[in-house]
Amino acid sequence: MDCLFCKIRDGQIPSKQVYEDEQVLAFHDIQPAAPVHILIIPKKHIASMKDAGEEDWALIGSVHKAAQQIARDFGIEESGYRLINNCGPDSGQVVFHIHYHLLGGTNLGPLVAQR
């Protein structure tokens, strides 16, 4: 498998990790779009949200729980943050290992789709 995030998970590619537990790994995005920009991945390889099965819902919940903890750790829980999951090529998903972008640390404004 030639998955960038699996290689990061396995330590083959270095990352600046901020969170890890048995099921979830989180690290700084190398091209941040906000002062806080963390990528949160399940350690299990799932290509995208459309590929997540019923057996993965608890794992997806663990990713969301990690996002809450990371937001607390970075001091953005109260001011607010954005949690984004892109699913498929039209959404802008580039790495096909399900992941969430946690963005914060500034006023992100309304999310407006490009037309």
From TrEMBL:
Q: Where is the active site?
A: H99
Q: Where is this motif: Histidine triad motif?
A: 97-101
GO molecular function terms noted in the UniProt entry = catalytic activity
Q: Which residues form a coiled coil?
A: none
A Pfam match: HIT
Q: Where are the transmembrane segments?
A: none
Superkingdom is Bacteria
Q: Where is the HIT domain?
A: 4-113
Q: What is this protein called?
A: Histidine triad nucleotide-binding protein
